[in-house]
Amino acid sequence: MLLHVRDLAFGYGGRIVGSGVSFDLAAGEVLCLIGPNGGGKTTLFKTLLGLLPARGGRIVLGGTDLSRLSRSAIARMVAAVPQAHAAFFPFTVREVVVMGRASRIGPFAAPGPSDAAAAEKALDALGIGHLADTVYTEISGGERQLALIARALSGEPRLLIMDEPTASLDFGNQARVLGQIRRLAQAGIAVLFSTHDPGHALLCADRLVALHGGRLVADGPSAATVTPALLRLIYGIDVVVAPVPGLAAPVCVPVVD
Ligand SMILES: Nc1ncnc2c1ncn2[C@@H]1O[C@H](COP(=O)(O)OP(=O)(O)OP(=O)(O)O)[C@@H](O)[C@H]1O
Protein backbone atom coordinates (compact mmCIF):
# COMPACT_ATOMS: atom_id res chain seq x y z
CA MET A 1 0.00 0.00 0.00
CA LEU A 2 1.50 3.36 -1.00
CA LEU A 3 -0.42 5.51 1.48
CA HIS A 4 -1.81 4.13 4.70
CA VAL A 5 -3.73 6.52 6.99
CA ARG A 6 -4.94 5.28 10.37
CA ASP A 7 -7.03 7.08 12.97
CA LEU A 8 -5.54 10.40 11.82
CA ALA A 9 -6.34 13.64 13.64
CA PHE A 10 -5.44 16.93 11.96
CA GLY A 11 -5.90 20.64 12.55
CA TYR A 12 -4.28 23.96 13.41
CA GLY A 13 -2.86 24.99 16.79
CA GLY A 14 -5.44 24.19 19.43
CA ARG A 15 -8.15 23.38 16.87
CA ILE A 16 -8.75 19.81 15.69
CA VAL A 17 -10.44 19.96 12.25
CA GLY A 18 -10.79 16.21 11.67
CA SER A 19 -10.16 12.98 13.56
CA GLY A 20 -10.53 9.22 13.34
CA VAL A 21 -9.68 9.36 9.61
CA SER A 22 -8.49 6.06 8.09
CA PHE A 23 -8.04 5.08 4.45
CA ASP A 24 -5.56 3.44 2.09
CA LEU A 25 -4.39 4.33 -1.40
CA ALA A 26 -2.56 1.95 -3.74
CA ALA A 27 -0.32 2.67 -6.74
CA GLY A 28 -2.39 3.24 -9.87
CA GLU A 29 -5.53 4.05 -7.90
CA VAL A 30 -7.56 7.29 -8.01
CA LEU A 31 -9.20 8.36 -4.75
CA CYS A 32 -11.60 11.32 -4.67
CA LEU A 33 -12.21 13.34 -1.49
CA ILE A 34 -15.43 15.30 -1.14
CA GLY A 35 -16.74 17.40 1.73
CA PRO A 36 -18.49 20.71 2.32
CA ASN A 37 -16.76 24.11 2.28
CA GLY A 38 -14.58 24.35 5.36
CA GLY A 39 -14.90 20.59 5.89
CA GLY A 40 -11.15 20.06 6.23
CA LYS A 41 -10.07 18.75 2.82
CA THR A 42 -7.16 21.17 2.40
CA THR A 43 -6.10 20.70 6.02
CA LEU A 44 -6.05 16.92 5.51
CA PHE A 45 -3.96 17.34 2.34
CA LYS A 46 -1.47 19.64 4.11
CA THR A 47 -1.12 17.01 6.82
CA LEU A 48 -0.56 14.21 4.30
CA LEU A 49 2.14 16.36 2.65
CA GLY A 50 3.89 16.82 6.00
CA LEU A 51 3.22 20.59 5.98
CA LEU A 52 1.15 20.31 9.18
CA PRO A 53 2.00 17.82 11.94
CA ALA A 54 -0.50 15.00 12.48
CA ARG A 55 -2.36 15.62 15.74
CA GLY A 56 -2.91 11.92 16.29
CA GLY A 57 -2.85 8.59 14.49
CA ARG A 58 -0.47 7.52 11.72
CA ILE A 59 0.41 8.31 8.12
CA VAL A 60 2.59 5.68 6.44
CA LEU A 61 4.01 6.63 3.04
CA GLY A 62 5.79 4.00 0.95
CA GLY A 63 6.15 1.80 4.05
CA THR A 64 7.71 4.49 6.31
CA ASP A 65 5.99 6.60 8.93
CA LEU A 66 5.69 10.15 7.52
CA SER A 67 7.10 11.62 10.75
CA ARG A 68 10.38 9.74 10.09
CA LEU A 69 10.75 11.01 6.49
CA SER A 70 12.73 14.16 5.67
CA ARG A 71 11.07 16.97 3.72
CA SER A 72 13.08 16.08 0.63
CA ALA A 73 12.24 12.36 0.94
CA ILE A 74 8.53 13.27 1.06
CA ALA A 75 8.94 15.66 -1.90
CA ARG A 76 10.52 12.90 -4.00
CA MET A 77 7.53 10.62 -3.37
CA VAL A 78 4.60 13.04 -3.31
CA ALA A 79 3.81 16.02 -5.50
CA ALA A 80 1.08 18.54 -4.79
CA VAL A 81 -0.85 20.24 -7.57
CA PRO A 82 -2.28 23.58 -6.45
CA GLN A 83 -5.19 25.29 -8.15
CA ALA A 84 -4.12 27.18 -11.27
CA HIS A 85 -3.01 30.54 -9.98
CA ALA A 86 -1.96 33.83 -11.46
CA ALA A 87 1.79 33.97 -11.92
CA PHE A 88 3.73 37.17 -11.46
CA PHE A 89 7.03 36.19 -13.04
CA PRO A 90 7.18 35.57 -16.78
CA PHE A 91 8.65 32.05 -16.75
CA THR A 92 8.09 29.88 -19.78
CA VAL A 93 5.93 26.79 -19.34
CA ARG A 94 9.10 24.66 -19.71
CA GLU A 95 10.79 26.57 -16.87
CA VAL A 96 7.71 26.14 -14.65
CA VAL A 97 7.72 22.39 -15.37
CA VAL A 98 11.47 22.03 -14.66
CA MET A 99 10.78 23.58 -11.22
CA GLY A 100 9.02 20.30 -10.41
CA ARG A 101 12.50 18.69 -10.42
CA ALA A 102 13.57 20.74 -7.38
CA SER A 103 13.42 17.73 -5.02
CA ARG A 104 15.80 15.83 -7.31
CA ILE A 105 18.35 18.60 -7.92
CA GLY A 106 21.10 19.24 -5.36
CA PRO A 107 20.85 22.46 -3.29
CA PHE A 108 23.49 24.38 -5.30
CA ALA A 109 23.11 22.55 -8.64
CA ALA A 110 21.42 23.69 -11.83
CA PRO A 111 18.96 21.45 -13.71
CA GLY A 112 20.86 18.98 -15.93
CA PRO A 113 20.00 16.92 -19.03
CA SER A 114 18.02 14.34 -17.04
CA ASP A 115 15.89 17.15 -15.57
CA ALA A 116 15.27 18.62 -19.02
CA ALA A 117 14.32 15.15 -20.31
CA ALA A 118 11.89 14.55 -17.41
CA ALA A 119 10.29 17.95 -18.06
CA GLU A 120 9.88 17.18 -21.78
CA LYS A 121 8.33 13.81 -20.92
CA ALA A 122 5.85 15.47 -18.53
CA LEU A 123 4.95 18.14 -21.11
CA ASP A 124 4.29 15.40 -23.68
CA ALA A 125 2.25 13.31 -21.22
CA LEU A 126 -0.04 16.29 -20.63
CA GLY A 127 -0.23 17.10 -24.34
CA ILE A 128 1.18 20.62 -23.87
CA GLY A 129 4.59 20.25 -25.56
CA HIS A 130 3.54 22.96 -28.00
CA LEU A 131 3.27 25.43 -25.09
CA ALA A 132 6.80 24.76 -23.76
CA ASP A 133 8.25 28.09 -24.90
CA THR A 134 5.12 30.13 -24.19
CA VAL A 135 5.19 32.43 -21.17
CA TYR A 136 3.13 30.96 -18.29
CA THR A 137 1.40 34.30 -17.62
CA GLU A 138 0.08 34.29 -21.21
CA ILE A 139 -1.73 30.93 -21.25
CA SER A 140 -5.30 30.18 -20.17
CA GLY A 141 -6.39 28.91 -16.75
CA GLY A 142 -6.95 25.41 -18.16
CA GLU A 143 -3.52 25.36 -19.77
CA ARG A 144 -1.99 26.57 -16.49
CA GLN A 145 -3.65 23.71 -14.65
CA LEU A 146 -2.20 21.23 -17.15
CA ALA A 147 1.23 22.93 -16.76
CA LEU A 148 1.00 22.59 -12.96
CA ILE A 149 0.17 18.89 -13.32
CA ALA A 150 3.17 18.54 -15.70
CA ARG A 151 5.34 20.33 -13.12
CA ALA A 152 4.26 17.84 -10.44
CA LEU A 153 4.77 14.92 -12.83
CA SER A 154 8.30 15.99 -13.82
CA GLY A 155 9.43 15.19 -10.27
CA GLU A 156 8.44 11.54 -10.98
CA PRO A 157 6.24 11.24 -7.87
CA ARG A 158 4.51 8.05 -6.78
CA LEU A 159 1.57 10.00 -5.36
CA LEU A 160 -0.10 13.13 -6.72
CA ILE A 161 -2.26 15.17 -4.35
CA MET A 162 -4.53 17.61 -6.17
CA ASP A 163 -6.65 20.16 -4.30
CA GLU A 164 -9.69 20.96 -6.47
CA PRO A 165 -7.81 20.56 -9.76
CA THR A 166 -10.92 21.44 -11.78
CA ALA A 167 -11.89 24.59 -9.84
CA SER A 168 -12.35 27.60 -12.12
CA LEU A 169 -11.87 25.53 -15.27
CA ASP A 170 -14.41 25.59 -18.10
CA PHE A 171 -16.37 22.44 -18.96
CA GLY A 172 -13.89 21.27 -21.61
CA ASN A 173 -10.82 21.80 -19.45
CA GLN A 174 -12.52 20.03 -16.52
CA ALA A 175 -13.02 16.99 -18.75
CA ARG A 176 -9.41 17.19 -19.99
CA VAL A 177 -8.03 17.30 -16.44
CA LEU A 178 -10.25 14.36 -15.35
CA GLY A 179 -9.04 12.39 -18.39
CA GLN A 180 -5.43 13.16 -17.47
CA ILE A 181 -6.02 11.95 -13.92
CA ARG A 182 -7.16 8.58 -15.31
CA ARG A 183 -4.14 8.35 -17.61
CA LEU A 184 -1.73 9.14 -14.74
CA ALA A 185 -3.27 6.29 -12.74
CA GLN A 186 -2.92 3.96 -15.73
CA ALA A 187 0.80 4.85 -15.66
CA GLY A 188 0.93 3.56 -12.05
CA ILE A 189 0.73 6.86 -10.16
CA ALA A 190 -1.62 7.08 -7.17
CA VAL A 191 -3.85 10.15 -7.29
CA LEU A 192 -5.77 11.75 -4.43
CA PHE A 193 -7.90 14.71 -5.47
CA SER A 194 -10.65 16.84 -3.98
CA THR A 195 -13.62 18.30 -5.79
CA HIS A 196 -16.92 20.03 -5.15
CA ASP A 197 -18.55 18.02 -7.94
CA PRO A 198 -19.32 14.45 -6.81
CA GLY A 199 -19.95 13.60 -10.47
CA HIS A 200 -16.19 13.87 -10.95
CA ALA A 201 -15.72 10.90 -8.64
CA LEU A 202 -18.08 8.90 -10.85
CA LEU A 203 -16.18 9.97 -13.97
CA CYS A 204 -12.62 9.27 -12.92
CA ALA A 205 -12.12 7.94 -9.38
CA ASP A 206 -11.90 4.29 -8.36
CA ARG A 207 -12.92 5.18 -4.81
CA LEU A 208 -14.49 8.01 -2.89
CA VAL A 209 -14.02 9.20 0.67
CA ALA A 210 -16.21 11.90 2.21
CA LEU A 211 -15.41 14.21 5.12
CA HIS A 212 -18.30 15.55 7.15
CA GLY A 213 -18.26 16.97 10.67
CA GLY A 214 -14.56 16.19 10.95
CA ARG A 215 -15.07 12.47 10.28
CA LEU A 216 -14.93 10.22 7.23
CA VAL A 217 -18.55 9.28 6.58
CA ALA A 218 -17.94 7.20 3.45
CA ASP A 219 -15.18 5.12 1.87
CA GLY A 220 -15.89 2.82 -1.03
CA PRO A 221 -16.01 2.32 -4.78
CA SER A 222 -17.28 5.56 -6.36
CA ALA A 223 -20.22 3.95 -8.13
CA ALA A 224 -21.53 2.41 -4.90
CA THR A 225 -20.69 5.35 -2.64
CA VAL A 226 -22.01 8.41 -4.49
CA THR A 227 -25.63 8.08 -3.36
CA PRO A 228 -28.43 10.62 -2.82
CA ALA A 229 -28.32 9.82 0.91
CA LEU A 230 -24.60 10.62 1.21
CA LEU A 231 -24.92 13.80 -0.86
CA ARG A 232 -27.90 14.95 1.23
CA LEU A 233 -25.85 14.40 4.38
CA ILE A 234 -22.88 16.36 3.04
CA TYR A 235 -24.50 19.17 1.07
CA GLY A 236 -27.98 19.32 2.62
CA ILE A 237 -29.77 19.10 -0.73
CA ASP A 238 -31.55 16.48 -2.81
CA VAL A 239 -29.44 15.06 -5.64
CA VAL A 240 -30.48 12.68 -8.40
CA VAL A 241 -27.91 9.99 -9.22
CA ALA A 242 -29.11 8.28 -12.38
CA PRO A 243 -27.70 5.99 -15.06
CA VAL A 244 -27.75 7.29 -18.62
CA PRO A 245 -27.96 4.87 -21.57
CA GLY A 246 -24.62 4.79 -23.36
CA LEU A 247 -22.62 6.24 -20.47
CA ALA A 248 -20.41 4.06 -18.27
CA ALA A 249 -20.95 6.22 -15.17
CA PRO A 250 -24.24 7.54 -13.76
CA VAL A 251 -24.75 11.30 -13.70
CA CYS A 252 -25.27 13.31 -10.58
CA VAL A 253 -27.55 16.36 -10.70
CA PRO A 254 -28.70 18.61 -7.83
CA VAL A 255 -32.44 19.22 -7.47
CA VAL A 256 -32.99 22.99 -7.72
CA ASP A 257 -36.08 24.37 -5.93
N1 LIG B 1 -4.40 28.51 8.65
C1 LIG B 1 -5.49 28.21 9.36
N2 LIG B 1 -5.53 28.38 10.69
C2 LIG B 1 -6.63 28.05 11.42
N3 LIG B 1 -7.76 27.52 10.89
C3 LIG B 1 -7.78 27.33 9.57
C4 LIG B 1 -6.65 27.65 8.72
N4 LIG B 1 -6.99 27.33 7.44
C5 LIG B 1 -8.23 26.84 7.49
N5 LIG B 1 -8.71 26.83 8.74
C6 LIG B 1 -10.02 26.34 9.19
O1 LIG B 1 -10.01 24.92 9.13
C7 LIG B 1 -11.28 24.43 8.69
C8 LIG B 1 -11.07 23.54 7.48
O2 LIG B 1 -10.62 24.33 6.41
P1 LIG B 1 -10.13 23.69 5.05
O3 LIG B 1 -9.55 24.80 4.23
O4 LIG B 1 -9.26 22.52 5.33
O5 LIG B 1 -11.50 23.18 4.43
P2 LIG B 1 -11.82 22.72 2.94
O6 LIG B 1 -12.66 21.48 3.05
O7 LIG B 1 -10.58 22.63 2.13
O8 LIG B 1 -12.72 23.94 2.46
P3 LIG B 1 -13.10 24.49 0.99
O9 LIG B 1 -13.89 23.41 0.32
O10 LIG B 1 -13.95 25.69 1.31
O11 LIG B 1 -11.81 24.83 0.29
C9 LIG B 1 -12.14 25.65 8.40
O12 LIG B 1 -12.98 25.88 9.51
C10 LIG B 1 -11.14 26.78 8.26
O13 LIG B 1 -11.69 28.00 8.67
TrEMBL record:
Domain ABC transporter: 3-238
The entry's keywords: ATP-binding, Hydrolase, Nucleotide-binding, Translocase, Transport
UniProt EC number: 3.6.3.34
Taxonomic superkingdom: Bacteria
GO terms assigned for molecular function: ATP binding; ATP hydrolysis activity
SMART domains, per the entry: AAA
EC primary class: hydrolase
Cross-referenced InterPro entries: AAA+_ATPase, ABC_transporter-like_ATP-bd, ABC_transporter-like_CS, P-loop_NTPase
Function of the protein: Part of the ABC transporter complex HmuTUV involved in hemin import. Responsible for energy coupling to the transport system.
Similarity-based family: Belongs to the ABC transporter superfamily.
Official protein name in the record: Fe(3+) ions import ATP-binding protein FbpC
